[in-house]
Design goal:
Elements: H1 2-49, H2 59-89, E1 92-96, H3 110-114, E2 117-121, E3 127-130, H4 132-135, E4 141-145, E5 151-160, E6 165-169, E7 191-196, E8 206-223, E9 226-236, E10 248-251, E11 256-263, E12 271-275, H5 280-289, E13 295-296, E14 299-303, E15 321-326, E16 342-346, E17 349-350, H6 354-362, E18 369-376, E19 379-386, E20 388-389
Length: 390
């Protein structure tokens, strides 16, 4: 009996000790996880929620300095732009086909009577650049008003209706010409300014601003039952109204990169300017020798941006110039150049746009010989043509 009691007691005692030992382990694990959770939350709180100031930093001073610098930069830029606009405005002129005898811009048929437009001074001795639709064609007359209010008789000495550009001459000296930029280097998104006379001389030299929306744009013009194309234009959302025609499109440094020409009337914020690079050789010639002998290939051609508007069998080229028509009286007629050919280069200079071709021809003189590299189907060859006077 005593022996049986002893066996039961040992078994019971071992079970109790085992349960106590197991419970103690669980208790230790619970305490460990509580401490682990506590320190984890403390670490997160200290490192990601609460930021203690350090003696090496002064957040208030940093914020204040940054803000004051930003304001100063804005003011400096604003003053710089204002000074630039004021300076360039001295070189912006008003152009009309008739002298203004009315005291109000709201007189009947004001635009049609006066032909209000804008131009820019490109030389100190009185050469003015504008649109041909503002000044008229070569040998036309117009009236040009300077920023000081003086009005001069102007004579159109050069005009190209395809480019919608013209050059006038007035008898004046010591004028302030604009500074030209490089229109081939401009990019979409750059800030630009347009200056012009939007609805008359009462609002002369109005300034609008925007960005370059796109480059190398082509637009189709349908006027008087004729169709024409203006190519390689700079598109901008700076406001351009009819009276702004012929005015400058400027970069923020004051350099002229284009001449404002047309606006899409069916939509707001879509205006176009002729890139300035194409006309530089013509202006240089007038400044240096007082004239310009324009050379001609005697062809009507388009670049790849115009081809989608045309019915041709050569719609798959991405560079070069498509020869649409050859004048029977021009120098190309006596060469082996054919309609439908693609002109890849001229004298080794690659051609992508029509303005590339125009700008190069403007640097040549009548009787100069140029070499065209052309493609005709799978054939590529060189053709020499002696330019004639246009």
């Amino acid at each position: 009996m005593f022996k049986l009691f002893f066996i039961v007691k040992n078994i019971y005692g071992d079970n109790v000790k085992s349960k106590h030992k197991k419970g103690f382990k669980i208790f230790i694990l619970i305490i460990f996880f509580i401490f682990l959770l506590y320190f984890g939350l403390y670490y997160v709180y200290m490192n990601f929620i609460v930021v203690y100031p350090n003696s090496e930093y002064n957040t208030q001073a940093l914020d204040s300095n940054f803000y004051s610098q930003s304001v100063e930069e804005v003011i400096e830029k604003s003053v710089s732009v204002s000074d630039m606009i004021e300076k360039v405005s001295e070189s912006v002129v008003g152009i009309s086909k008739l002298k203004n005898t009315s005291n109000s811009i709201f007189s009947n048929n004001f635009d049609s009577e006066l032909g209000i437009g804008t131009g820019i001074i490109v030389s100190s001795n009185g050469y003015i650049l504008s649109n041909s639709h503002v000044t008229g064609e070569k040998y036309s007359s117009c009236y040009i008003t300077l920023s000081n209010g003086n009005t001069y008789d102007g004579k159109v000495v050069w005009s190209d209706t395809n480019l919608d550009l013209s050059i006038c001459k007035i008898n004046a000296d010591s004028l302030t010409p604009v500074t030209f930029g490089d229109s081939s280097s401009v990019k979409a998104g750059e800030f630009v300014f347009a200056i012009g006379n939007p609805i008359g001389f009462e609002f002369q030299r109005t300034v609008t601003s925007g960005i370059i929306s796109a480059i190398n744009r082509t637009i189709k013009l349908e006027e008087n039952d004729t169709v024409s194309y203006m190519t390689d234009l700079i598109q901008t959302d700076a406001t351009i109204n009819p009276g702004n025609s012929g005015g400058p499109l400027l970069l923020s440094n004051g350099n002229v990169i284009g001449i404002n020409t047309v606006k899409i009337t069916s939509a707001e914020g879509i205006g176009f300017a002729v890139p300035i690079n194409v006309i530089k050789p013509v202006i240089d010639s007038f400044i240096k020798v007082g004239g310009f002998d324009e050379a001609s290939l005697g062809i009507l051609a388009y670049d790849s941006n115009v081809i989608p508007y045309l019915t041709t069998s050569s719609k798959n080229f991405t560079s070069g110039i498509y020869v649409a028509q050859i004048s029977t009286t021009g120098p190309a007629a006596s060469s082996t150049l054919r309609e439908g050919d693609i002109i890849n280069s001229i004298d080794g200079f690659s051609l992508t746009t029509m303005n590339d071709l125009r700008a190069y021809i403007y640097t040549k003189k009548p009787n100069d010989t140029v070499v065209l590299n052309i493609s005709r189907g799978k054939i590529t060859k060189d053709i020499s043509i002696t330019l004639s006077k246009k």
